[in-house]
Amino acid sequence: MMEWLIEELFAKYNYWISIVLMLIGFYTMIAKDNLIKKIIGLNIFQTAIFLFYISLGDITGGTEPIVSEEMIAQGYVYVNPLPHVLILTAIVVGVATTAVALALVILMYEEYGTIEESEIIELERERGA
Prior knowledge:
CATH architecture: Orthogonal Bundle
Strand content: under 5%
């Protein structure tokens, strides 16, 4: 019984890795005060999501979906390309999001002289008072 459980856990190691990466990225976004570190955490979280979706789209023994209808009728197993295409688009959106976030951090540094979130909040409170 125990051997079966261990085999099942290690058979899906890519899911476990994506979960660990998600937790690392989420922790970094929540716990760190530095805005650059928060952006890095966001990128780690995004990468974990990409890995998770690509893992869902994989089929053991599947090949490229460039086949004829006759091959499919014979039971040819192929990998669905849709998750991979969607992740390719998500990577582009992630890069653009990172670029905008870094540009905003640069503007905040020029405005406040720091990239620490708590210091920026404190400076904003002093300006508002």
